[in-house]
Write a structure and sequence with these properties.
Among the domains are: 149 residues, no CATH class; 146 residues, 2-Layer Sandwich (Heat Shock Protein 90), CATH 3.30.565.10. Strand 7 and strand 8 form a beta hairpin. The relative contact order is 0.09. Helix 1 packs antiparallel against helix 6, helix 3 packs antiparallel against helix 4 and helix 9 packs antiparallel against helix 10. The protein is of the alpha+beta class and 432 residues long. The N terminus is likely disordered. Helix content is 64%, strand content 11%. Pfam families: HATPase_c. Its EC number is 2.7.13.3. Keywords: ATP-binding, Kinase, Membrane, Nucleotide-binding, Transferase, Transmembrane, Transmembrane helix.
Length: 432
């Protein structure tokens, strides 16, 4: 048994862009928090190490700077989470504050010889990710300025610390800085790569949806043109049939002429329905109907189209309502027609409601569909134009629904189950 779910267009492009931008603001706050926590953690570890190996460098001044930096990290994260910045300027100022705080801390703990001086690259790397290039240039110049000042005003090592011990302390700090930088690169670059893949997938889906919409519009224009062109020939044939019915020499063919007249009337009704559906689709006219009432409307249309078909309908539909229009009715009827062609002995139609989703299933006993996603593109058909399933899928997606197919290729219950899922609304909404 295989199940295929059709990708639906659940949000329009504007909603996608809004969601992506809000996610970007939250991600920016997380990046900044990660950077600042990393810097503060390294400052605390360095102070703890200096307290045992070089106590003169671990005085109260660097401790106060570390505490102030930690408080700034917490306050900025809370502010950016509750008030996401719409401009890059607040982020730029916060990165500049990080550089100044780190520069002061480095000046108090060894200056340019402090192995943690490489932490000056963290605000710079974060700025390249979060802010425009011109703002990143300012951060770069500030980082270079801080490092230059540390070089111009060196801090001599403590007198009671030997050169070998000082070098060992320096090497340990370099190792810690490298490990921290590698971890941050793993987290940040991995997150950015994941976001890039998600954006590429979203763009691909948008292109597919736009292409499908263009195909639907083209098919709709073609259908309207065909309906207009067929109107005159149908009227002409109707007049000819009426004349033949009145002719004495055609009395023997009266039953055939009555059948032909009935079929011509059915063609006119279908053309009228197609025209009305096109108008309603253009005006985006939808209505909310109880599921039982919508099912009854579908049943009446199916009985008119296939009076001799065996279609088993549910007796007690669940209490729910759905938003429908004429094009959705035609989409469901197209699926019923496909099921009847695959299973002339009869089909089953079922309805259910689960998790605020109304489901309408069409079950046939045919050979089963091919192992592909149905309804994504027009296909070749031996019994039609090959666009019915494509149009049905596009219509269902336009109304926020989803079309899926389940093929049963083995056993006595072989066949296909087509499932239409639509957003369910309350019965009260249907009567408003």
């Amino acid at each position: 048994m295989s199940r295929h779910t059709l990708p639906g267009a659940h949000y329009n492009l504007a909603m996608k862009l809004h969601t992506i931008s809000q996610a970007g603001f939250r991600q920016s706050a997380r990046y900044l928090l990660l950077m600042r926590l990393s810097m503060v953690t390294m400052e605390w570890l360095a102070l703890a190490t200096l307290w045992f190996l070089a106590p003169p460098l671990a005085g109260p001044a660097p401790l106060l700077v570390t505490i102030a930096h930690a408080l700034f990290a917490a306050a900025s994260w809370l502010w950016m989470t509750r008030h996401p910045p719409r401009l890059a300027l607040p982020v730029t100022f916060s990165l500049a504050a990080d550089l100044v705080a780190l520069g002061i801390w480095l000046a108090l703990t060894g200056g340019s010889t402090n192995p943690l001086v490489s932490l000056l690259l963290l605000p710079l790397a974060t700025g390249l990710v979060l802010i425009p290039l011109r703002h990143s240039l300012v951060i770069t110049l500030l980082a270079i300025t801080v490092y230059t000042l540390l070089m111009l005003y060196p801090v001599p090592p403590p007198a009671d610390l030997t050169r070998a011990a000082y070098m060992q302390l320096h090497l340990m700090g370099m190792w810690g800085t490298f490990a921290l930088t590698a971890a941050i690169m793993l987290v940040v670059v991995g997150s950015l790569a994941s976001q890039l893949r998600e954006q590429q997938q979203a763009l691909a889906r948008s292109r597919e949806e736009r292409l499908r919409d263009e195909q639907v519009i083209a098919l709709g224009l073609s259908a309207a043109n065909v309906a207009h062109r067929l109107g005159t020939p149908l009227n002409t044939m109707t007049l000819v049939v009426d004349d033949l019915k009145l002719a004495p020499e055609c009395t023997a063919f009266r039953e055939d002429l009555e059948l032909l007249d009935q079929q011509l009337g059915l063609c006119r009704e279908q053309l009228q329905t197609m025209t009305e559906a096109a108008v309603r689709a253009r005006e985006a006219a939808t209505e909310t109907l109880p599921l039982a009432r919508w099912q009854q409307r579908l049943r009446e249309s199916a009985t008119l189209l296939w009076p001799g078909a065996r279609i088993q309908w549910p007796q007690n539909p669940p209490e729910a309502a759905v938003r429908v229009d004429a094009t959705l009715d035609q989409a469901v009827l197209n699926l019923i027609a496909n099921a009847l062609r695959a299973s002339p002995e009869g089909i089953e139609v079922g309805t259910s409601v689960e998790d605020n989703r109304a489901r309408l299933t069409i079950i046939d006993r045919g050979a089963g569909i091919e192992d592909t996603l149905p309804g994504q593109h027009p296909v070749r058909s031996e019994q039609g134009l090959g666009v019915g399933l494509f149009l049905s899928n596009a219509t269902i997606q336009r109304l926020g629904g989803r079309l899926s197919a389940e093929a049963r290729t083995e056993g006595p219950e072989r066949g296909t189950t087509m499932t239409i899922e639509l957003p369910a609304v309350s019965e009260e909404a249907a009567h408003e």
